[in-house]
């Protein structure tokens, strides 16, 4: 190699080397803490969680029944089939589970959609029907 090129190559290498160092390594405490922080945030008891807890557990049929359905289904209001009354439920159950569930979820005549429990999942409504039709 021509010796006159050497200083030039060294200069190029050195500048490349330093330039990448400045881009890659911000060594300030904040920058380092930011790089090594854990993924996600820590929730300390008593403080507001960063993301509202996702409701994972569903309510039981009994809890929903007592709160939303009892007012009509305890005494057969407007012809509502009474809880645990085998006679009231016999013909309705003969329609099949899918129809019963559909009527309860979408509403049926004087039966309001989801029995007014608008935040009930379909599974919760089905659990409630199972609770209602169980003989007393
Ligand atoms: C405002 C009164 C009212 C409330 C509240 C109510 N129901 Fe009803 N429900 C009725 C009436 C009335 C019927 C009968 C409708 C008909 O056969 O014409 C009925 C019928 C039903 C049926 C039978 C549907 C069919 O296909 O025969 C199911 C299942 C049912 N309700 C479930 C529920 C559940 C579950 C809840 C609570 C989450 C609830 N209901 C809340 C009035 C109510």
Automatic annotation (TrEMBL):
Q: Which GO terms describe its molecular function?
A: electron transfer activity; heme binding; iron ion binding
- Record-annotated Cytochrome c domain positions: 56-136
Q: Which PROSITE patterns match?
A: CYTC
Any one Pfam family here would be Cytochrome_CBB3
Where is the signal peptide, in residue numbers? 1-24
For this protein, the record's InterPro entries field holds: Cyt_c-like_dom, Cyt_c-like_dom_sf, Cyt_CIE
| Keywords from the UniProt entry | Electron transport, Heme, Iron, Metal-binding, Signal, Transport
User: Does Repressor appear among the keywords?
Assistant: no
Q: PANTHER family recorded for this chain?
A: CYTOCHROME-RELATED, PTHR40942
Q: What is the official name of this protein in its record?
A: Cytochrome C
User: Source species, please?
Assistant: Photobacterium carnosum
């Amino acid at each position: 190699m021509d010796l006159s090129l050497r200083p030039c190559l060294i200069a190029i290498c050195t500048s490349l080397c330093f330039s990448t160092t400045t881009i890659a390594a911000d060594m300030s405490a904040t920058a380092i803490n930011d790089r090594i922080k854990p993924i996600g945030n820590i929730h300390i008891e008593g403080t507001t969680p960063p993301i509202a807890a996702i409701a994972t557990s569903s309510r039981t049929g009994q809890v929903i029944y007592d709160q939303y359905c009892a007012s009509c289904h305890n005494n057969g209001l407007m012809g509502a089939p009474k809880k645990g009354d085998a006679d009231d439920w016999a013909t309705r159950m003969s329609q099949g589970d899918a129809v019963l569930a559909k009527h309860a979820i979408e509403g049926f005549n004087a039966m309001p959609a989801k029995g007014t429990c608008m935040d009930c999942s379909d599974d919760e409504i089905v659990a409630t029907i199972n609770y209602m039709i169980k003989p007393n």
